[in-house]
Amino acid sequence: MPLQFKRSWSDADLESYRDSVARFVEAEMAPHDEEARKRGNVGRELWRRAGELGFLCSDIPEEYGGGGGDFRHETVFNEEMARRGLTGMAASVHSIVAHYFLNHGTQEQKQRYLPRMARGETIGAIAMTEPGTGSDLQGVRTRADRVGDHYVINGSKTFISNGLLAGFVLVVCKTDTSKGASGVSILIVDTGNTEGFRVGRVLDKIGLKAQDTSELFFDNVKVPAANLLGGVEGKGFFQLMSDLPYERLVIGTMAVACMEGAYEATLEYVRDRKAFGQTVADFQNTRFKLADAATQITVGRAFVDRCVEQIVAGTLDTATASMCKLWCSETQGRVIDELLQLHGGYGFMTEYLIARMYTDARVQRIYGGANDIMREVISRAM
Ligand SMILES: Cc1cc2nc3c(=O)[nH]c(=O)nc-3n(C[C@H](O)[C@H](O)[C@H](O)COP(=O)(O)OP(=O)(O)OC[C@H]3O[C@@H](n4cnc5c(N)ncnc54)[C@H](O)[C@@H]3O)c2cc1C
Questions:
Q1: Which of 119, 144, 168, 189 could form a disulfide with 151 if both were Cys (CB 3.0 to 4.6 A apart)?
Q2: Range of the structural domain that residue 220 is part of
């Protein structure tokens, strides 16, 4: 019997939802991946289509235009992309941004942004990282000065996912430079026709080729005071911290789904490829490597599924979410590397799924909080 990586949290409704998602991903996303990778973004039309089909903001309440589901629905969409190595559409970042509105936004902000995000009419980005600071978020230098009923933003951000296509950006700024964490606020900057806002380079990366990770510049960008997330200054750092488990678990779920997809593709490859008068799958070494991979994936699946159940129940804590991000992304790196090896030279060719997964996997240990920061968070809970 072939190995099947069953999800403990799934049910008949979710599997039928998965079928619809998989059909969309196969028919409308995968065929355009190569051109998206060359262009450096998936294009706004794909976002609109995903919104139209109800795959965006699926865990946002219906009263704000979302799907009214929960984290499992989001996971289904992320998994179906991850297992096919489709990493251009950062729907997970879009969802994370939606949750900033849901959990911290004013009623007016939720109503203004969430329905359009769910429809895919506007794409969200979150800009924390700057050229001079990443892990040390309290050190951000982008500042927002209150002038009458506006804020004036100056600074620059880098490595921002969805940076080119975003219709608005949540910008992490200092509203009080004399303070550390309590001087940080989040401001909403609409990107269309906003004077002083500029997208810099779409960055040339070793992986995630179809993802528009960009530099952003803010030169005296004026935004209404009503664009302060939650309406109270100095809450930004705490808003960021409270939503981190969601982001870290997303990374864990995508790591496991990517390994599953890589495992299936490798199995197919080694059963077909011949060497020394037999298939590569017949070598004991191949079978042992695949057995190791299957074991790692099964362990990862059990852990990630427990975390999914916990987040749905509202009980996932920061340390466990950090363990999940840490273990799953480290394991993904090792497992994909071994599976690539079984492809021989073809594993080094970008036309093969495993090669794209290999380069894409590397960043999983860096973004969403670098893995050493995960270790720091876990050790603080000891
Ligand atoms: C493809 C991609 C997409 C991204 N998307 C976004 C996005 O949408 N929005 C956004 O704001 N950012 C985004 N980032 C930025 C990402 O979150 C940061 O790169 C990450 O947090 C690390 O920050 P840094 O690059 O400044 O590294 P640094 O903070 O300079 O870290 C360098 C090294 O020092 C280590 N280190 C730092 N502090 C400690 C410590 N206290 N203890 C031990 N080791 C430490 C780190 O682990 C790392 O190994 C993205 C990055 C990439 C590559």
A1: 144
A2: 124-232
Report if residue 65 sits inside a domain.
yes
What pTM was estimated for this model as a whole? 0.97
pLDDT at 327 over 60: yes
Q: Which of 87, 93, 129 to mutate to test the pocket of ligand 1 (most atoms within 8 A of CB)?
A: 129
The encoded tokens of residue 346 equal 């073809």
Q: Which of 79, 215, 247, 260 is catalytic?
A: 247
What residues have CB less than 8 Å from 77, skipping those under 6 apart? 21, 50, 55, 58, 91
Average pLDDT over residues 88-97: 97
For ligand 1, what atom is nearest to the CA of residue 172?
A: 11
Residue 22 lies in a domain: yes
Is the pLDDT assigned to residue 1 strictly greater than 50? no
CA distance 74 to 164: 23
Phi-psi region of 196 (alpha: psi -120 to 50; beta: other; left: phi over 0): left
Same domain, 135 and 190: yes
